[in-house]
Amino acid sequence: MKTIILPIVILLSTTILHAENGARGHNSTTRKSASSVHNILSTQLPARLQSSIRTRYKTYWITDLYKCTTEGKVCYYITLENADQKIKLNTSHSANWQVAHVVAKDVAIR
Question: How far apart are the first and last CA of the chain?
């Protein structure tokens, strides 16, 4: 009976070990290509990006701000509004904001 159980235990432990190693390899490749998106506060922006928003767009308020991380690279996306227009900016891996989209608001006179 012992001669039958011992080879079965060794076979099962070897199979489990190979399965765990294969799963680890699969997860590591998935993590590299995965991206994450998080809403953040304006105080969580890097100082260089905060200061340019405060000086250039001081008459605007922030309506949307999020951070996107893909393959170790970080991008920030922000939407600013005032009474007349809505501006969307992004960083796209650089140190400065770039205008992605500007929309004029319809102002109805009553």
Answer: 95
pTM above 0.85, yes or no: no
CATH at residue 58: 3.10.450.360
Looking at the fold, whether 56 and 69 belong to one and the same domain comes out as yes
The tens place of each residue's pLDDT in the chain, 110 residues long, gives 555 666 665 655 655 555 555 555 544 444 456 789 999 999 999 999 999 999 999 999 999 999 999 988 999 999 999 999 999 999 976 778 999 999 998 876 66
Same domain, 79 and 89: yes
Could you tell me the residue range of the domain that residue 2 belongs to?
A: 1-33
**Which residue from 104, 103, 101, 106 is spatially nearest to 90, judged by alpha carbons?**
101
